[in-house]
User: What shape does this take?
Amino acid sequence: MGVIDVINLLSLIMFRRALTMACLLLALAAAADSDCAACHPKETARWQQSHHHAAMAVATSKAVLATADDWITDKTGTRFRLLNASDGFNAEVVESDAPAAQFPVTHTFGVYPLQQYLVDIGGGRLQALPVAWDARPEAEGGQRWFALDSDLNWRSFGFNWNTSCADCHSTGLRKNYSPASNTFNTTWSAINVSCAACHRGIAEHHNWLGRGSPDSAANAGFNQPLPRRGRWEFTAGQSIAHRSDTGVDKPAHSDQLALCADCHAHRTLYKPQATAAAAGHLADRMQLSLLEPGLYHADG
Assistant: This one.
């Protein structure tokens, strides 16, 4: 065996070990999510009523809020309607240059004030329809379909769940795109925004519990102290809210804002969401959008 062969073999061994460790960490995170309720029943009950819990769900009759059979036209002139099917829901799509086609609705996306729907177009791709359901009460102008303000074709990358939406609505996501076959085999450790998505370091937290919960361990094994929170407040005469950090640890607040910004910011990621937490400073893992016209209103 030559030197090159030895290097290749060692590289393969190291890759397999790294892959095994990554899978193990994802498995630990997923298993820990299901165990959180044992010690934190009240927090779990509150999370189950949250938008994080409803970030993505299988499209069952309970999860789908929209009415079926109503046609809605997007900005490109393509028509859509939701149909009841024997095994769930379909979306019927009528494009100007093609006959009507139906696609299975696989998941709901979000819950309030609007809910979108994902359809399977093959090749492992899920597309978010460019029309959404206004989930607000009818008295507030809701309970209706409306078209999103976009002139992109509904099959475009901008509406592709795998690349544009998935990493913030699910936990431990892996896009798993294959250039050779031009297909996706996207996976997650939890379909929605689970405990592990924000409380990063759940495996270390379990280790902390196993060691008898020593006081010497910072943050009970977690990466950072999420319970330390400030408040967003509107000051009289001001047009935009400001964060109040009175009486709390400001550096900890900066860490929290950086963690939330992974999803709650208009940005472009440099690294996959599942590995972003290890990327260091916020600017090392994403490019934040500036307050530019077209992205933000003048008051932010």
